[in-house]
Amino acid sequence: MAGTVDTYRRVIALTGPILPLLSFFARLPVAMCQFGSVLLVAETSGSLATAGLVGGTLSAGQVLCGPLLGRLADRRGQRPVVLGAAVVNALATAALVAGALGGLDTVPLAVIAGVTGASVPLIGPLARTRSVALAHRDGAGGEVIGAVLSLEGTLDETSFVLGPALVGTAALAVHPAAALGLAAALVAVFGTAFALHPTAAVTAGSPAPVRTKGAARARPAGVVRSVRCSLALQGAVFGGLQAGIASLTGELGVPGQAGLVYAANGVVSAAVGLAMGALPARFGLRLRWRAATGAALLLSVPLLFSGSLWGLYAVVTALGFACAPHLITAFALTERHVEPARLGESMAYAASSLVAGQALSLALSGRLAERYGPSGAFAVTVGAAALSLVLALVTRVPADSPSTGTPEAGAAHAGTPRAGTPGTGAPRADTPGTGTPHTGTPHTGTPHTGTPHTGAADGYAGR
Fold it and tell me: Which SS3 state, helix, strand or coil, does residue 407 take?
């Protein structure tokens, strides 16, 4: 325990105590906007279909444009990209509130929502990338980098528990418009502060790498593609879980419990994510990926047989033990297997995958819940968990070296300065999540994303 506390002290010594606080409050709006937009439009238009369309368009904007913002941050640096995105996002969110209150038609509202989603500042992925870059710059070992990712994963999970709670509280106490107004203020103030923090200098950006025709990639792209698919499946787990919880609590006559049940999953996941920093280096990324996805399948199966509120609480809470380990490991695998100059873009892709998986899953599982009841939605969760385990088992991940803890293919990492940025989000960004040492030279500017946890997208952009 003392060793773990000391490790996190070293993390705070790298980032300073202010940066994690700024990044936490700056990522809260991501967790608030989609839910808040649905509540607001449903309230002002009286149409759930319109509310769903607006919320879906917001998510689509984030999925499609997140990687573009990540690429810009890689090339131009985090400061100008986050500043610009924060300003546009705050204005777009305020416009969404004004349009909804003013009775704007569905199509214009959806367009504004799309701009709101497209301008999400990717705080989760970029905070991950920045913290990892600071760790590499100072020559920190894998233990510290693992703690960095675990801390970022915890911040992501906490934001996605607190964000919807703030929306619900503001909607009940005042009006849904107050929740989105708060989100706009948070992104304007704390997004700007995150961009201007002195640590942004470590992610100043780098020019696009010059690639000769037919040149081979330095790292195995297959791992990265598999990880993105795995994150999309994790999003599907979340989507099915949300729809199933809403359906079952409605059947039991306690719909107000739905948010609390889902929050229990996030609280446990956040705690486990923080504890991930204490895992010894001998537990490599490949083992962690397989263990996390296997645990998710095992712990999700009882959902199919849940019929009481307390039974639902127990199963959903237990499932939280598998969420953060998967997300943190996925972002760590992403960092380890992408070119340094494209880290931000890759983290944004990871976070966007999580958001896209959740959005598609919600649409499917909602229909299944209407037709087959809660078990129809929970079947999506179990199926996604099973596919994620299969993916982890069949994907060839370079084994960690016994002496260094880095992949045998990671020699390409050595001596290359890191360039750049962030998915959901990400929820999780870097070799750090593994707790294994990194052999590369200090980062010179590649931020990290997360988790979503990615992420989301942030961090967990879709949590």
Answer: strand
Q: What is the pLDDT of residues 151-177, one digit of tens each?
A: 888 888 788 878 887 887 888 788 989
CB 427 within 8 A of CB 401: no
Residue among 369, 409, 358, 400 nearest 160 (CA): 358
430 contacts 396 by C-beta, under 8 angstroms? no
**Residue length of the chain:** 463
Indicate the CATH number for domain 10-207+219-398+419-434.
1.20.1250.20
Rounded Cα distance, 1 and 5, in Å: 6
pTM for the whole thing?
Answer: 0.74
CA dihedral 313, 317, 319, 321 (to 10 degrees): -170
The residue behind tokens 């330095």 is 218
Q: Which residue bears the tokens 């997360």?
A: 450
Query: Nearest 5°: phi and psi at 3?
Result: -65, -40
Q: How many CB atoms lie within 10 A of CB 107?
A: 10
Amino acid at 328: I
Under 8 Å between Cβ of 435 and 332:
no
> Sign of the CA dihedral 274, 278, 283, 285?
positive
Closest alpha carbon to 359 in 41, 57, 48: 57
Per-residue pLDDT of 103-120, as tens digits, reads 999 999 999 999 999 999
Packing angle between helix 258-275 and helix 221-251, nearest 10 degrees? 150
Check: CB of residue 290 under 8 Å from CB of residue 227: no
